[in-house]
Design brief:
InterPro entries: Cell_div_ZapA-like, Cell_div_ZapA-like_sf. It comes from Candidatus Desulfovibrio kirbyi. The chain has 92 residues and is mainly α. The protein has one domain. The protein contains 2 helices and 2 strands. It has a two-stranded antiparallel sheet. Helix 1 packs across helix 2.
Length: 92
């Protein structure tokens, strides 16, 4: 088994990924970054690549935070339902 990093090109930059990384997921992430960057580039006009990448990073971070909040909400609802189920199983 090789312990060398796997290199991919993302927006013209060579990026190394550790061995064992889920390369299908990494490639999906690369496509997402490149697609969103293209949209920002079209809408951002002559903004520098650094500024566009900063907007992209903020947008992706916001997506992660929103997803985490939704996950937390779902977990809280599940815990509430489990609590109700456990209470309904108690003898009267």
């Amino acid at each position: 088994m090789s312990h060398e990093n796997i290199n991919l090109t993302v927006l013209g930059l060579e990026v190394g990924f550790k061995p064992g990384a889920d390369m299908g997921r990494v490639q999906d992430a690369v496509r997402l970054v490149e697609d969103r960057f293209s949209v920002l580039k079209v809408n951002g006009g002559q903004q520098s690549k650094d500024i566009l990448l900063t907007f992209l990073a903020i947008g992706l971070a916001d997506d992660v935070l929103q997803s985490q909040k939704k996950l937390d909400d779902v977990q809280n609802r599940i815990m509430s339902m489990l609590s109700l189920i456990e209470k309904s199983d108690e003898p009267l």
